[in-house]
């Protein structure tokens, strides 16, 4: 029996705002979309891993899909939830627990910056409401320090946001489909310097799903299977860049992204130069910039030239976030990583429409970073 795992179907419920529609219902729609793409039915699925932040029992999606009695496990790992769920689904197949498995993610977040239960972090609600919590304060401080250390300009950060908003404008399912100029992004409302409002993603609603199967069965379902060559997850080591003290020189250990990417390259038997198209966590434009180096695609500080040369645009040498990433799509946490995977699958299958990269891409890469420090990297190939 083959130890390969293939993705044979992908599904998406568009991200954005969807009124009173339940997150579970969005998840069911994405799952049905993925099953239709694979040419199979829910009754053929033998196990599923379902991720959500807002839904405490995401396994309740079985009520929308069918009560078949299979093991369904709830998954949550911050912004790395999608990468965790595909890793678990692939492992279940490799371990002989299932021939066909699903990874499903969905969420329905309120407007505004991501908040947290004050009883957990000990912070009052006004801390987030005044722009001082997590996705604003932490990431703003982090990129500001990185820019100073490596000679990166605010204009370069704005160019990343402009690139992602442009890509979103040619992506039919994107939430934010209006392009923006670099100047307008720089002149937008400052949230946490140097990051303006246009440089951040926004919490939103939506769902995504994947159908996976044993590699030797894949051609029963599709002529263009995409194989999971690596799916790695790493957490922080002591001394890594710490969430609660981002301005202090604590980097005596690498970011968990460095550890996850190193492990993924080793497992897949490739290096960064072999990657044709990538999706990198862009909670904000500064995060995408930092993650270019942490995932091994360039050295710290080289991003200035990469971005100036258009290297990460759809026609560049390493297209990044071809569907607009989080900046254009927003982030329903449970679904976000699976949206990344879906985009890479479409690119490798030549089904990405106006945003299709050229050069017959064969290897794709996705990366997630979930605060306070879980990173997931998946490498896919034809």
UniProtKB/TrEMBL annotation:
User: Which molecular function terms from Gene Ontology are attached?
Assistant: acyltransferase activity, transferring groups other than amino-acyl groups
Q: In this record, what's one Pfam family?
A: Thiolase_C_1
Q: Give the matching CDD domains.
A: SCP-x_thiolase
Q: Which InterPro entries match?
A: Thiolase (IPR002155), Thiolase-like (IPR016039), Thiolase_C_2 (IPR055140), Thiolase_N (IPR020616)
Domain Thiolase N-terminal: from-to ranges: 5-168
Which residues does the UniProt record annotate as the domain Thiolase C-terminal?
A: 255-379
Its name, as the record gives it, is Thiolase family protein
Q: Which organism is it from?
A: Mycolicibacterium hodleri
């Amino acid at each position: 029996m083959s130890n390969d795992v293939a993705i044979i179907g992908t599904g998406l419920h568009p991200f954005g705002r969807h009124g009173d529609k339940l997150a579970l219902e969005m998840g069911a729609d994405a799952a049905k979309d993925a099953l239709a793409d694979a040419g199979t039915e829910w009754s053929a699925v033998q196990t599923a891993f379902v991720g959500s932040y807002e839904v405490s029992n995401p396994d309740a999606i079985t009520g929308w899909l069918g009560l078949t009695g299979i093991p369904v496990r709830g998954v949550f790992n911050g912004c790395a939830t999608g990468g965790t769920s595909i890793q678990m689904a692939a492992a279940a197949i490799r371990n002989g627990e299932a021939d066909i498995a699903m990874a499903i993610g969905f969420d329905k977040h309120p407007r505004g910056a991501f908040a947290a239960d004050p009883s957990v972090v000990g912070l009052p609600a006004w801390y987030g409401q005044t722009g001082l919590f997590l996705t604003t304060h932490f990431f703003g401080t982090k990129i500001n320090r990185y820019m100073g250390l490596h000679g990166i300009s605010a204009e370069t950060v704005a160019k990343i946001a402009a690139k992602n908003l442009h890509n979103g404008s040619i992506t039919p399912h994107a939430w934010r489909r209006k392009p923006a100029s670099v100047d307008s992004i720089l002149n937008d409302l400052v949230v946490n310097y140097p990051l303006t409002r246009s440089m951040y993603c926004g919490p939103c609603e939506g769902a995504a799903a994947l159908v996976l199967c044993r590699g030797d069965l894949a051609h029963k379902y599709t002529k263009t299977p995409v194989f999971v060559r690596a799916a790695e997850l790493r957490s922080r080591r002591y001394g890594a860049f710490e969430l609660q003290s981002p301005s202090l020189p604590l980097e005596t250990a690498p970011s968990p992204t460095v550890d996850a990417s190193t492990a993924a390259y080793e497992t897949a038997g490739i290096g960064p130069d072999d990657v044709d198209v990538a999706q990198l966590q862009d909670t904000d434009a500064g995060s995408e910039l930092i993650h270019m180096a942490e995932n091994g695609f360039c050295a710290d500080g080289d991003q200035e030239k990469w971005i100036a040369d258009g290297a990460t645009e759809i026609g560049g040498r390493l297209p990044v976030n071809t569907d607009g990433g989080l900046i254009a799509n927003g982030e329903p946490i449970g679904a976000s990583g699976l949206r990344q995977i879906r985009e890479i699958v479409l690119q490798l299958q030549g089904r990405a429409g106006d945003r299709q990269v050229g050069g017959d891409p064969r290897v794709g890469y996705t990366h997630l970073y979930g605060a306070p420090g879980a990173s997931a990297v998946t490498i896919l190939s034809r």
